[in-house]
Design brief:
The chain has one helix and 13 strands; from the N terminus they run H-E-E-E-E-E-E-E-E-E-E-E-E-E. By secondary structure, it is mainly beta. The chain has one domain.
């Protein structure tokens, strides 16, 4: 009789632990995504004293692709200008409407050293100003008028909060087609972005590791 009771208790215990395992609904985070985008073309019209115009080239971190959507985009490029899908229009010609809550900030450090977005303050586009400041040495690039070259500033890492509430970090590597090590403005076409990015696909999670 004792043997039967022992076997019965053992079966009940195994069944209980099995059910407990089956009911463990602890969410598992998806791994962060590290990618490189090459030759994202961001043309513009005008410049050099003329009014700047032309559509922005929009990019969506969730898909990792360029998009023409009016709503499903996070950042957008035109010439050296980068817009975010958050805030309001700045007043420049041909810019996209802002209908998200994206934001941006610039962190000084190496790409590897920026491991989290926790504690950062994010700006949004506003009347007459972009979250990523425009102009040489104000944001992500330096312009050398002596050689007519635009160069990403080393150690300037762009961190974004996306429209869906995710986080991404970006390191711009080149502004010229095929990312030449020593671009020649006479032969290398400009307004072609190459950049590394890390994107956390888990909403609200700030880690880039």
């Amino acid at each position: 009789m004792k043997t039967l009771q022992t076997v019965t208790l053992a079966v009940l215990f195994i069944g209980f632990t099995s059910c407990s395992s089956d009911n463990d609904n602890t969410p598992v985070s998806d791994p962060v995504q590290a990618e490189q985008v090459s030759n994202l073309f961001a043309p513009q019209t005008g410049g050099q004293g003329q009014p700047v115009g032309g559509e922005f080239t929009k990019f969506d971190f969730e898909t990792g692709m360029q998009t023409t959507s009016d709503t499903d985009w996070d950042i957008a490029f035109r010439g050296t200008t980068i817009a975010v899908n958050g805030g309001t229009v700045t007043g420049t010609d041909d810019e996209p409407a802002r209908n998200g809550d994206a934001g941006a900030t610039i962190v000084t450090g190496t790409f590897a050293s920026v491991t989290t977005a926790e504690g950062l303050t994010f700006a949004q586009d506003a009347d007459a100003s972009f979250a990523i400041p425009t102009g040489s040495d104000n944001g992500w690039y330096n312009y050398n008028p002596q050689v007519n070259i635009i160069t990403p500033i080393p150690g300037k890492i762009l961190v974004f909060k996306t429209t869906a509430g995710n986080y991404a970090k970006v390191e711009i590597l080149s502004y010229y087609e095929n990312a030449p090590a020593n671009p020649d403005p006479q032969t290398d076409a400009g307004r072609y972005y190459t950049f590394n990015y890390v994107y956390n696909p888990n909403v609200g999670e700030t880690s880039f590791e």
